[in-house]
Amino acid sequence: MLLAVALAAAAPDDDVARAEATRRVLDDGLDAFTGLAPESDARAAWQLGDCSTGSAWVRELLAAACARTAAPGWEVRPTLVLDVGDATPDNASGDPFAGVVGIRAGARGALYAGPMVLRAAPSVGLDVGLGVAPVGRLDELWVGYDSGSGWLGVGHQDRWMGAGRSGTLLLSDNAEAPWMLNGGVDGHLPGVLTKAGRFRAEVGVGLLTEPRTDVTLPGLLMMDFRWSPYPVVEIGLNRLSIFAGEGRPAPDFGQLLIPSEPHLSDDPDKLLPDQDELATMVLKVNLPLHKWLGAPFGHLSGWWEYGGEDLIVPETDGFDLPQLAGVGNQYGGELALGPVVVTGEYTRLMDDLFRWYVGHRVYHEGFTQNGRVLGHYGGPDSETFAARASISGDRWRARAWGDHVRRVGVVDVRADSVVALPTEEEQWRGGLGADVLVEGWWLSGGYALTSVEGGNFTAGNDRVRHQVSVAVSVGLK
To answer: What is this structure's pTM?
Structure first.
């Protein structure tokens, strides 16, 4: 039985190496799914290629995974992060960096014993503003069985359920990760059925444990199904559901799987079981230009995520078929050419009656933890344009990014109309950053500028915010 101990930093190396590992999969048209849990993209590259190949970023990230099938070994990689400014970062596992100065010291750790895995990412720090507030976080804690083609475990860990690069409609690392029991499989069917392509299925059930003002400790159901009939095409069906909680009746198992009997007008006292639903369909096409044309071409990818904020059952004389309501869309594309990768995305989460993430008649706070949505950082009633570009070498990367978020302040939904505040909030952001790998040391730095008009949907509440981030980690072998 192999026993290997590894500790790897949560930042800055994960983002860079995962991006490089993902590019390796896409450029060569490898038979693997991308855009999953934090280490999944790297694992896919590792399973499909020699651990000694690829950029230095990828080799460093894969060192712990490769140790599972090589001689026992260990690695320790502590991290120190300094954040200065009055902006609040998105996609930071729910860490608000609430002060003007935020300091985090921690490490990401993993203990492997054959297919048995224990991963943890603790950190401590200080947020310094008008006062000094100590911070203690556990961004990840997961224990279970993981053979690569199948897994079953319990804990909480960041997930990325969708094709988007800047955010996804259902589940991302924008908020505190929910605690869940989850399991799944990933691979080909046996025998002649292997020609049907690659399949991935994951199901999880857990709790939203952070304090809420609607229902305490509601349950959360996650379903993620993907099919790749050929490595250049990926099709996904995804779903999240909130149910039960303290003082709330639980739906029966059949309704939990297919909520065909939503209770709205026929349950004014809110006594019957009810659920809040999100569901999406994803289509992603990847053209592995490098595989077909060689250097300097990389890949050309495009994706579309279409979803609904709830499930409704229209009144019919025949068979009652649940349908999506409150449509949302995300469109994106990416081009890799030589050392350059350029990405663009457009996300629209607006509907006349069904508000994304929040506003359910029972679960008012909906799919949020500590006020941050589990899905796209734009949040409810928003429209987002995002773009980013990077250029990288074997041991360095420079990056630039920007986005524009327009938010509508919805007060209430009455009958067939939406009551909204007269002032919309608009946010423009842009940033620059760089990452360097030097003899096991990961160095990362960045600056972001944010301009807000109509902040909190209040006319004249305009301001400019700044944020400077520096992170360093070192591998001790």
So the answer is: 0.89
